[in-house]
């Protein structure tokens, strides 16, 4: 029973990623695309966690952590770019 639920959840995460990809390609604005990228990252982390449970291993925990951190940092960078137009501000003396 649990295996069926895990397989169903992986399939639904795949559908959610496909919908987010559609939003990235045909999104009306840049903030919508950034949110869709963040949604893909969260769904990938969740899918990898479910695969880790299905395989009964802890080998994917580092992958989950690294992917979550990279997704968070990229979302912050895109948000800063949308807000200010630059990601890293440099102060110039002249």
Automatic annotation (TrEMBL):
Species of the source: Virgibacillus profundi
PANTHER family the record matches: NA(+)/H(+) ANTIPORTER SUBUNIT F1, NA(+)_H(+) ANTIPORTER SUBUNIT F
Cell location: Cell membrane
Keywords: Antiport, Cell membrane, Ion transport, Membrane, Transmembrane, Transmembrane helix, Transport
Record-given protein name: Na(+)/H(+) antiporter subunit F
GO molecular function: sodium:proton antiporter activity
Membrane topology: Multi-pass membrane protein
Protein family per UniProt: Belongs to the CPA3 antiporters (TC 2.A.63) subunit F family.
Example of a GO cellular component annotation carried by this entry: plasma membrane
Transmembrane segments annotated in the record for this chain: 6-26, 35-54, 60-82
A Pfam family matched in the record: MrpF_PhaF
InterPro entries reported for this sequence: MrpF/PhaF-like (IPR007208)
Keyword Metal-binding: no
Primary site of residence: membrane
Coiled-coil residues: none
Record bears the keyword Cell wall biogenesis/degradation: no
């Amino acid at each position: 029973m649990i295996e069926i639920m895990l397989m169903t959840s992986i399939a639904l995460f795949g559908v959610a990623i496909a919908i987010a990809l559609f939003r990235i390609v045909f999104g009306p604005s840049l903030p919508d695309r950034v949110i869709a990228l963040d949604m893909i990252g969260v769904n990938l982390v969740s899918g990898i966690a479910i695969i880790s449970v299905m395989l009964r291993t802890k080998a994917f925990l580092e992958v989950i952590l690294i992917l979550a951190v990279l997704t968070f940092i990229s979302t912050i960078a895109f948000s800063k770019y949308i807000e200010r137009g630059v990601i890293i501000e440099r102060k110039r003396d002249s």
